[in-house]
Amino acid sequence: MQPQDMKKLQSDYLKKLIPYIYNNCPVYKKKIDDAGVKPDQIKSIDDIKRLPFTTKIDMRDNYPYGLFSAKDKDVVEIHISSGTTGNPTLVGYTRYDVSLWSDVMARTICCAGGEPGDTIQIAYGYGLFTGGLGFHYGALEMGMKIIPTSSGQTARQLKIMQDFKPRVIACTPSYVLYMAEEAKAMGIDPAKGNWKIGIFGAEPWSESMRKEIEQVWNMAATDVYGLSEIIGPGVAQECTHKDGLHIYSDVFYPEIIDPKTDQEVKEGESGELVITTLTKQAIPLIRYRTRDIVSIRYDKCKCGRTSPRISKIKGRTDDMIIVRGINVFPSQIEHVLLGIKGTQPHYQIIVDRKAHQLDEVEVLVEVEEKIFSDEVKKLNELSAKIKKEIEAALSIGVKVTLVEPKTIQRSEGKAKRIIDKRTI
Amino acid sequence: MKLTQISVFLENRKGRLYEVCSLLGKTGINIRALTIAETESFGVLRIVVDKSDLAIKTLKANNFVANLTDVVAIEVGDKPGGLAEILKVFADSDINVEYMYGFVEKFSDNALLVFRFEDTDKAAKILADKGVKVVTRREIEGL
Question: Which ranges of chain B have pLDDT less than 50?
């Protein structure tokens, strides 16, 4: 599509979107009023800069339905992910949104090199996490044969790969490397595996990891980007040239801003990715701050696509980390510790990834005098309780280690909460 | 007669036990009995010293997490069946032992053992009723 045609399409969508949100979502009506903007002043996509940003805090504060524009009876599916503290993040889909999701996911699989008639093994988690079902809808739309293995049960994943010869595998990049190790241990040569195209995402990964995956599995490894607030997976995807992720800017309008000044950065410069969902119905978001740092380019790709391309994620503007596809905020752990009698929120999170293994999380908690006991069993009970509650809050397994007070590294009086030892 | 035990939280880190012992040594505190309970990630050092008040003050001043626990030290015949004899008294009287350990020194032919009971007061009373020789604080200080 020519740039001017794309701009017209985006403008048409935005002109319809703003009155729709304004008239159906009181929270957004107030935000837009507060910004001093009238919906009829939004005439082209360039006017988007006049509109207010939406943040994760807005999602949390208006949990569960405050940011919905669709009527409750029109919402056909909801997904829930962990929030920063207390309230989780809820996203909803109307029937139209599910078909939009199917459409962008079909584009994603196609962009990676998948074709109708291929078999796809979907080893992202099915359930409240958007990964599994997002790929499922896209593959259904594509007319592929779907093997919905969901995550885990590695031996069975490998047997299915051997028995049904799926050409496409979708999972987290660390899991596909982990599966290579397991395959070798089971006497299977991964280089002779059946997966030829991998669509990996939901966690940060590097070019060196790509090289390793491609070598060990003898496949093409591509990167998918998405976030549940926008739709789930299916916001951007690498094509077979693996030179940036094509973002579906006809439906997810991207801006790259300087997170400090909120001003747009120049093409090619790094900044925070901000996305407006131009056509979503249930919970359309205006200028959503993803907190992901990327750069963008608008030149035509070798594959022929004219859609802009974003870089791999270069970092975050907040302290969120992603572990095994799950978003983890230090504040969640703080919240848990404050809730356990006798513990202080003095903690540190260490994330590590041993070669070809899944990410491991260790939480160091300082032992205060009040909770110290001469009896080891009481200390073990305490550490088991902390472990159980953190795991319930984060939905991932952690190791809890009790440490002496004031031993957690503090910088400028402020404790360093996360030590990320992963080489990504 | 109850004795005071000092328990110190020890991170599983090189030199940490040395730091406790060296601190106590510099302060002129003598360790009479000790044991370490260890887990995968941390340990609890339990000691009986000659000057427990000074010891706990010094440890806390040096940022160690430490607390005091009542324990009982008992003289046990240093002969086959000596320990069994005393444990029979506990079993018969329904007294639960949380943990126990031995002294470094002894002041008679008998062995000296430290007992941490679930219910220290009850245990002390029964020991007195049964005429079991319990070591006093003064005796520990004078060892």
Answer: none
- B52 to chain A, closest Cα gap in Å: 15
Question: CB distance from A370 to chain B under 8 Å?
Answer: no
CB-based contact, B120 to chain A, within 8 Å: no
Domain of B51 in residue numbering reads as 3-68
d(CA A387, CA A31): 40
Q: Do A372 and B64 touch (CB under 8 A)?
A: no
ipTM above 0.90, yes or no: no
Q: Which of A376, A402, A407 sits opposite B37 (nearest CB)?
A: A376
pLDDT above 80: residue A178: yes
B137 and B80 fall within a common domain: yes
Looking at the fold, whether B126 and B63 belong to one and the same domain comes out as no
Between A and B, how many CB-CB pairs are < 8 A?
49
* Domain termination residue (choose one: B28, B45, B68): B68
Same domain for B89 and B61: no
pLDDT tens track for A261-317: 999 999 999 999 999 999 999 999 999 999 999 999 999 999 999 999 999 988 888
Residue A398 backbone phi and psi in degrees, to 5: -135, 160
Of residues A148 and A209, more confidence is placed in A148
pLDDT in tens, A250-277: 999 999 999 999 999 999 999 999 999 9
In whole angstroms, give the CA distance from residue B31 to residue B131.
Answer: 27
Q: Provide the mean pLDDT of chain A.
A: 92
Domain count, chain B: 2
A99: contact with B, CB 8 A cutoff: no
Domain boundary among B68, B89, B104: B68
Q: Are B79 and B138 in the same domain?
A: yes
The CA dihedral of A247, A128, A287, A33, to the nearest 10 degrees, is: 150
CB pair distance less than 8 Å for B44 and A369: no
- Whichever domain contains B30, its CATH number is 3.30.2130.10
**Cα separation, B86 vs A341, whole angstroms:** 39
Q: State pTM to two decimals.
A: 0.74
Contact B9 A404 (CB under 8 A): yes
In a mutational test of the A interface, the residue from B23, B62, B65 whose CB has the highest number of chain A CBs within 10 Å is B65
Are residue B33 and residue B77 in the same domain, yes or no?
Answer: no
Give the DSSP per-residue string, A20-82: HHHHH-HHHHHHHHHTT--GGG--SGGGGGGSPPB-HHHHHHTTTTTT--S-GGGEEEEEEE-
Of A369, A374, A407, the CB nearest to B69: A374
